[in-house]
Specification:
Layout (H helix, E strand, L loop, with lengths): L8 H4 L12 H5 L3 H22 L8 H17 L3 H15 L5 H20 L3 H15 L5 H20 L14 H15 L6 H10 L11 H9 L4 H15 L6
Helix pairs in contact: 3-4, 4-5, 4-6, 5-6, 6-7, 6-8, 7-8, 8-9, 8-11, 9-12
Length: about 260
């Protein structure tokens, strides 16, 4: 997923810590001062924003600001891993602002829909995530906004990843619904999907030749990496998947 535009990357990441000294694990697993400070800060933000959005002063705040504040409540709950509260506030944001025609508000709503899908993935609610992502791209696919186009392209990439992980046929989007920077990545996802069935050595070699200088600095494939480790495919299929995934990951910088 594209790290730069996904607000909940930190929330959705799987963090596994291994400690050499098991006897001190209780102390080490306790929240640090920094974590406690961040938690208190988020809780304070939530309280402040709820006061603003539930009793809005339109002389002080524009509708764009109110949309952002409402979104931020959901985001903060997500950071605290209170996912049902986050989903509730994301739904409130969507319901309240979905019919506004102002581009800046549409961008907020699209971002909220994307984050809502991310939480569903975190909860293994893949069909719900796909439903939201399809709604996002169908709502904004004809946009002239650069930021909305980015959300649509990201949604298509996320759909492909989820379909890959859940053994569904990968939906091929209209080429206009993918940014140029996403097209080579999408192609590799389709190759990775076919690796479940047969060797993709020829396709991989051709992809590498076309994309040998390609490097991505703002992408993560944590979902697929976790899926590749956890799936119960037979060893030959698993080997093909890992080989193909390794090629893709070699183009992700700062790993």
């Amino acid at each position: 997923m594209r790290k730069a535009v996904i607000f909940l990357v930190a929330v959705l990441a799987n963090v596994n810590l291994t400690f050499a000294n098991a006897s001190s694990s209780v102390e080490l697993n306790s929240p640090s001062k920094k974590e406690l400070f961040e938690q208190k800060s988020l809780e304070k933000d939530i309280t402040s924003y709820i006061k603003i959005v539930e009793n809005p002063d339109y002389s002080q705040h524009s509708m764009v600001e109110l949309a952002l504040f409402t979104q931020e409540i959901g985001f903060s709950f997500g950071e605290l891993q209170k996912y049902e509260d986050a989903l509730s506030w994301y739904d409130k944001t969507i319901e309240k602002f979905k019919d506004f025609t102002q581009v800046e508000i549409k961008e907020v709503v699209a971002g909220v829909m994307f984050n809502k899908a991310l939480i569903y993935v975190r909860q293994n609610r893949y069909d719900d995530a796909l439903c939201v992502l399809h709604e996002l791209k169908d709502s904004y696919k004809n946009t002239h906004s650069e930021y909305l186009a980015l959300h649509v392209s990201n949604a298509n990439m996320a759909i492909a990843e989820i379909e890959l992980m859940t053994d569904k046929p990968i939906s091929k989007p209209n080429s206009k619904e993918l940014l140029d920077e996403h097209k080579s990545l999408f192609e590799m996802l389709t190759i990775l999907n076919m690796a479940k069935i047969k060797s993709q050595d020829k396709e991989i070699a051709q992809w590498k030749m076309r994309n040998q200088h390609l490097k991505y600095t703002d992408w993560t494939f944590d979902w697929i990496e976790d899926w590749a480790k956890a799936n119960n495919y037979q060893s030959e299929k698993k080997e093909r998947i890992n080989k193909t995934l390794g090629v893709l990951l070699s183009h992700i910088e700062a790993r």
